[in-house]
């Protein structure tokens, strides 16, 4: 084993500049499609980033963050939670049912509900914690076998199941196939959301958030454009 070299960390002013650039691009995309600029929230994807990068984003005023692993997020955010007002943490990675209680304790919104068993576990955890559980349903719009998410045709049933279980279903989330144009996937997600009266659409990442805004995204999840390339482990589907 060779010792790993220290991660290159963007200076805090570089993070602030990138943040401003992305906010400007979001605003321009909103205007281009006749949408209100405050209708789109930037979720800063802080997975695998060093503490300095997160501190820089917080100092620049960013308050909404996305993480893809419960344990990693606990290490990174448990001690910070108290000191930061207005902080919102969103889980954007797959969740195992046996981590539901930990996820409910740490996260404000869980974006990756994709099966009834997990809905049950989240409902139980929420009841125990005396906390409403806000969720998005992740839809596998490309029906990719290796990817998480409920199939588009089964989304309606899961939405109803989650509502009946007592979860607060706020909307839908998707990660389009890496090798396809994302537009049709975003359009499909929006169509399913409308059919079920759901407001929140979490879609669009560094490479396609402007397209997602054109298709109605309310939350865009941006990591590498904001913090630079990740060096740590990632969700396999993102590679
Ligand atoms: C990592 C990740 C992102 C951010 O991706 P970038 O291309 O770095 O912006 C967005 N959504 C999910 C679900 C992710 O896992």
TrEMBL record:
InterPro entries: Ala_racemase_N, PLP-binding_barrel, PyrdxlP_homeostasis
Domain (Alanine racemase N-terminal) ranges: 19-230
Pfam family, one: Ala_racemase_N
Entry keyword set: Pyridoxal phosphate
Positions bearing N6-(pyridoxal phosphate)lysine: 47
Key word Transferase present: no
Record bears the keyword Metal-binding: no
SUPFAM superfamilies: PLP-binding barrel (SSF51419)
Gene3D superfamilies: Alanine racemase (3.20.20.10)
Family: Belongs to the pyridoxal phosphate-binding protein YggS/PROSC family.
NCBIfam families in the record: YggS family pyridoxal phosphate-dependent enzyme
PANTHER family named in the record: PROLINE SYNTHETASE CO-TRANSCRIBED BACTERIAL HOMOLOG PROTEIN, PYRIDOXAL PHOSPHATE HOMEOSTASIS PROTEIN
Known function: Pyridoxal 5'-phosphate (PLP)-binding protein, which is involved in PLP homeostasis.
HAMAP family: PLP_homeostasis
Protein name, as recorded: Pyridoxal phosphate homeostasis protein
Organism annotation: Brevundimonas denitrificans
Lineage: Bacteria, Pseudomonadati, Pseudomonadota, Alphaproteobacteria, Caulobacterales
């Amino acid at each position: 084993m060779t010792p790993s070299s220290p991660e290159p960390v963007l200076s805090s002013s570089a993070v602030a500049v990138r943040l401003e650039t992305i906010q400007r691009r979001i605003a321009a995309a909103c205007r281009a499609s006749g949408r209100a600029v405050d209708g789109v929230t930037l979720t800063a994807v802080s997975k695998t980033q060093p503490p300095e990068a997160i501190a820089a984003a917080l100092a620049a005023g960013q308050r909404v963050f996305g993480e893809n692993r419960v344990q990693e997020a606990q290490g990174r955010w448990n001690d910070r939670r108290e000191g930061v007002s207005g902080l919102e943490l969103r889980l954007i990675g797959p969740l195992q049912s046996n981590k539901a209680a930990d996820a409910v304790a740490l996260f404000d919104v869980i974006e990756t509900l994709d099966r009834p068993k997990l809905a049950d576990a989240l409902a139980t955890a929420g009841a125990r914690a005396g906390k409403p559980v806000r969720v998005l349903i992740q839809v596998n719009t490309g029906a990719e076998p290796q990817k998480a998410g409920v199939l588009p045709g089964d989304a309606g049933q899961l939405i109803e199941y989650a509502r009946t279980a007592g979860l607060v279903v706020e909307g839908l989330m998707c990660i389009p196939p890496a090798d396809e144009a994302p537009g049709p996937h975003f359009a499909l997600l929006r169509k399913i959301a409308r059919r079920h009266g759901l407001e929140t659409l979490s879609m669009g990442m560094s490479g396609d958030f402007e397209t997602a805004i054109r298709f109605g995204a309310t939350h865009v999840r941006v990591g590498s454009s904001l913090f630079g390339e990740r060096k740590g482990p990632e969700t396999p589907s993102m590679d």
